[in-house]
Every structure is written in structure tokens, then in C-alpha cells.
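User: I'm putting together notes for a lab meeting next week and I want to include a structural view of one of the chains we've been expressing. I don't have a solved structure, so I'd like a prediction I can at least talk through. The sequence is below, exactly as it appears in our construct file.
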Amino acid sequence: MKKIKGLALTLLLLIFMNVQVSASPNNNRHRLWYKQPAKVWMESSPLGNGRIGAMVYGGVETETVALNEVTMWSGERDKFQERLCGKDILNDIRQLFFAGDYSKGNRIASEYLSGTPHSFGSHVPLGDMKINFKYPQGNISDYKRELNLENAINTITFKVRNVKYTREYFCSNPDEALIIKLSASKAKALNLNLSFDLLRESEMRTTNNGLEFSGQVSFPKQGPGGVNFLGKVGVTIKDGKVTTKDGKIEITDATSIVIAFDVRTDYSNPKYKEDCVKTVDNVLAQNYDKVKQNHIGDYSNLYKRVDLFLGNSETDNLPTDIRWKKVKDGANDVGLDALFFNYARYLLIAASRENSPLPANLQGIWNDNLACNMGWTNDYHLDINTQQNYWLSNIGNLAECNKPLFNYIKDLSIEGQRTAKNVYGARGWTAHTVANVWGYTSPGAGPNWGLFPMASAWIASHLWTHYNYTLDKDFLKDKAYPILKSNAEFLLDYMVVNPNNGYLMTGPSTSPENSFIYKGEELSLSMMPTADRVLAFEALTSCIEISDILGVDKEFRDSLKNALAKLPPLKIGKNGGVQEWFEDFDEAQPNHRHTSHLLALYPFSQISPVKTPVLAEAARKTMELRLAAEGWEDVEWSRANMISNYARLLDAEKAYESVVLLERNFSRENLLTISPEGIAGAPYDIFIFDGNEAGGAGIAEMLLQSHEGYIQFLPALPKEWNTGSFKGLHTQGGAEIDLKWANGEVTEAKLKAISANTFKLKVPQRTKKAQFSKNGKAFNLTPDANGFVEVTLSANDFIELK
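Assistant: Thanks for the context. Below is the predicted structure for the 802-residue chain, given as C-alpha cells.
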């Protein structure tokens, strides 16, 4: 009997210990790892410092590192990019639409309002660094390839016979270079040669312990022109010998090797050659461990602000590609969900830093040589993709990563003044569906997808969003308001009163990138599609609020209020969904991937279950109809968009279904997201950055919302994530949130004020007898009848709920 009791006690202890272990976060949500090298680009590991991008394959005998630099662009400035339409012709075109002659209106608008790009260009890849190794005869064992998200270092280890080989790769922002260290457990065991297999025409020359190459980008597929560039690689070794000749670095009998690489272009940098040479020489002159620690300190300052744990998975200890394959075959993996979110933040840090010369493009800062060969080019699409790249930045506590985007928006606002004047006869600035680094702000060559002048208002809205999260008035006054005001001036001049109903309307323009049926004809252009109305409302209201906050431009503010009052309402169509066009047209493509009329739901909040429940149900109906349509054009960004849309509808299970489908259908072994073969003209799967970032933003939206004027915890928590925690997510109003929950209920919460403000918090209904403290001391907060509490905090004050 005593033995039985002892055995029972032991079992209970083991069960208890197992429960404790299973409820504890594990470090696998911060690493991607594999037991074999990558065979193709979409299996390799991405590194980046905001300018240089690298994809590491990890080959044993031949290592391939695919190289990119964010300013590596073809193309050139084009002063003939737009047709000179002007206000008079524009008014004549509009009369056709107001008279109901949509067919002729589309035809004439296409003639006068199409852009004429000649040298648009594309971001292009540089090519590959190749390292060929020589080993003694023997079996290769214990291979492991790991990307550690906590320090942004890719490590490869393996053994050949009894010698352990270790490689470390990272892209340093402080030292502005790709740095590789190769080492062996046995002295003088490293023998290799290093060379380049470049995709760009260049002249290669040898230097002391290194190579340099230079050239000019030529990519005629997307027009003439291209940047000039210089690349340099250098090495230092412990033991052994270095020789350079015939475009190769030969190293024999080394114990360890440090490789430093940089490439720069003359895009906005006349000193690019000098900077490139200095960068490599500076890295090699320093102690490797110091360079490594500088990188870790710089990177981890951003990455470690936020952590997400969504519960343990039985596959936590499996290689990433095996976990991915299990999800692809039908499983769910909550550990992979958290990894996907953490990876999205890692990728944004890698792609977009405060000193980045350009923001993340369609492929971030990486390039698989596929997107740039597509008709769409590897550019800046402003009808959702570039916006999605930055949806995670503010809620994900990476506000600094917005800076290159804001610099780019400022450039657009300057270049777009020409387009506003020449095409529309208007003040201010505008930009359309596609943009490049050469000042292209005109309509696209095809008006059915390219005539979207409200793209300017959409991309500029990120400035207002940034303020709402940071409450940085200096930023608002000096950076945001001048750009937003100029865009609002464009709207005041561009919009026109519809004589049939008195509404103030944009157009003709497209609802990206969709079309409708009118009298048996498929057409794309109309007056004020719903997306335009949503964006006009956002542009006007944000400027009104900013003018009021800053106490300036009262007369201008009044003119905006007057225009705002004349905008048409959002409508529900005969199909029960949100109406996509001002007229209730039949959809020509009911399976279309774009749902731009749902911008009112997310990322904006003109539609919500709280404020507009009827419209919210119509938004749900729109999504159901699209998802159920035969041949639904699901792609990485549309599926990621569904996560946030369903989260805003507080539909946890539908949001989670889209998380899983994004991972299952639109990601690859390295968890980068893809636009699949057959959609939007893609002949093959192509990596697109927006799915990773919008997917991460959607996961955050499921866990924390603040757009209703109050902070809500776990608004769309699926049963699969019933126990978990996060720290460091940000809300509008300037708050940072840490949260823990168990069995679907909040157990602990901390709200820290990043900016002084009064915060309104919705206390979870199931939280019984919540105890509050302020700055560590008991604090009395009593929820009102609707479960809300309000508290005024100074910067760095915090309240806790238990």
C-alpha cells in the first residue's frame, strides 16, 4: 500500500512537472533551424541590415550567399511619364460619367489619363557569393543550420570526420556590412576559394586580401538606365595563406577566417565608392568579437522589446521545415504561429532601419530574380502592398523602422506635385498605383489597374497612424502635417460635385484592381469607388484633427469640414455586402483578390461592430462572398488581410483559420510568404514581403486592439491560443502592453504610458475582482457599467491588473 501511494505521488509529481514545462515558453519561437543546407532560394535564410540583404544557403562543399542592396535599381528619371490632361479635359471626361455614358467615359479616360512610363526600372539582385571548400576525406555529420531571431545571426555547424566546422553570418547595421566568420576545431583545417557569380555586368579586380567589382545596372526588360555600383570583399585570417588572382580569393591552411562584404550604389550617394572601401576596411581592422557584439546590441535593442508565446506545441523541437510540412499537410502548430509573428518583426528590422536609404519594396531588401522579371516589377505598389509592409511597425513596437517609408513619402509628395498639376490641374500632390525610386507618381500604363490617385492618401495615412501611436507632436508638426496638408489640398481641387446628387466625388478612378459590368460591358473606371471615399474621408478628417491639435490653419480646417460634409455615405449593395462602387454595379470578377472597399474596416475604423454594426455585417458578407466565389484569387497579401479583417469583426476562429492558411498555402520552408503561381500573371511562386508583415500585424490585431478609442485585450483570441503571453505591443494613444492569459482569461496585464495621456481600458468581463496597482502601489480603479476604466498617466507611469 505504501508503495502504491509512493508511486501515485511520484506520478502526480511527474504530471505536475510536465504541466509546468508545457506551460513554459520555449526558445524555439525565436529560431528557424534545419538539418540540411538549402537547395533553392526559398529554403535559404534571410539576413539584412536595412540596406544589404543576404540569403544564406549553408552548403557544405559549396556555399552560396545571394546578395542584394536596396538601392540596386535599374531605370532613370522620366520627364515624359504622364499625359498632359489638365482640368478642362478632365471635366469633359467627368461629364460623360455623370451622364451615365460609362463606356465612352472609360474609353476617353484611358486615352487621356494613362501614364506613359519609358524608364520605370526595377529593383534587381546583385548575384551570388560562392565559397568552395576543400575537406579531407570523411563523412559529414551533425549538420545544423540555425537563424537565431534574438541576435540575427545565422550559424552553421557540422563535422567532417572529427573536425567541427562553424560558420557565423550576420548583416551589421552599425558596421554596415555582411560579415562571415569561418572557424574549425582543428588548427589550419580551412581551405577554400571565394568568388562571385554576379547577375550584373561588372569589372572584377583583385586587391590586397580581397576583390572589388564595379559596373552599372542594365536591365532592359524594365527600360533603360540604372545605378552605378561598387562591391568589395576582404578577408583576415588566423594562420594560413591568402592569394588573390583571376577573380578569386584562395585561402589555405587557415584556422579561422573573417570575411567582410559591402556593395553600394550612386543612388543619392556620390561618395559610394569611398564609403564601400572604408566600410570593409573598417570591419577588418576591428576585433571580430567587438563587431559581433556591436551588431547584437544594436539589433536586440529593437527585437527584444516584444515577445509572443502562444503555448507549446508537440513539434516545438522539430526542424522548421518539418514543422512547416506538417502544417502544410493539415496540422495546426501554435508554436509556429508565434514563430511566424516573431519572424515578421525580425524581417522588418532586417529590411527597414532608420538609416535605410529606401523603404522595403515588394521583396523587402531581398530579390529572387523572379519578381523583377514580372510585368509588375519589384517596385513600390501603393494599392496595398507597400502599406502592408509597414502595418506591423507601430503595434509591433518598431516605430523607428517607419523612417525610410516616411522619407520616401516625402519624396513622393515633392514629385507628385508635377503629376497633380499636369494630369489633374490641381494643387498639392498625388501618386498612383505604382511607384519607383525615380519620381514616378503618374497613373499606371493601364488605367484599369493604374488610375488610382487616392493611393497617395493611403500611403500618406501612415504618417497620421504613426502619430496616433507615438503622440510625437514635433513629428506631427514638422514631418506629417505638411505632407498631409498638401495631399488634402490636392483633394479639394481634384474632387467635383456630382450634379445628379450634390455629393463631392473623386474620379474617374478604379477600385484596385477590380472591374464591374455595365450594360453587358466589363469596365474599370467610375466616379468615386468606395475605396476613394474611404481614403478621402481619412485624409480630410486627419488634417482636420491635426490642424486642431496644432492650433493652425483654421480657415483651411473649415474648408476641409465643408468638403467632408459633402462626401457620399458608405452603402450596402444588393448582394448584402459593402458596395464597392458608388453605383451598385455587378462585379465582373466576384473572385477578385482585392477588397479595397473594406479599407473602412481595416486598417481604418470607419466600419466596426461597435460603431456601425450593420456595415460590419455587410463587411462580413463581402468577405464570405469573396471566399466562396469559384476560383477565389487567394494570395499571400489577401489571406494576410483576412486575418486583420476578421480580427476587427472579433471573429477569432475565422481570423485563426486565415493565420493557418497563410502558413499552409502561402509560405515556404524558410517561412517567407509567396504569391502563388497562376495569380496576377505569375508563372511561378514568387516571394513577396507583404504576407509576412501583414500576417504578423494580423496576429497582433487578434491579441490587442485600440482603434475604438479604448484598449481591448484578446479581442479575437482563438481556442488554439487559450494560454499564452506577450510583452511590448503598442497601442494608439501611446501605451505599451504586457499580457498573460490562461484558459482564455487574462491573468495579468501591464499598461505602461509611453506618452502622457488618459487611457481608457476595457476590463475583460470574466476577470473577477480585478486588482489594480499604479507604479507598484495599490490603486483603486472601478469599472463602469460597461466594464471600462480610465486612468491618466504621465510618461513611464504604469498600471498593473491582476
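A couple of points you could mention at the meeting. Residues 403-424 form the longest helix (22 residues). The first strand starts at residue 31 and ends at 34.

User: Perfect, that's what I needed.
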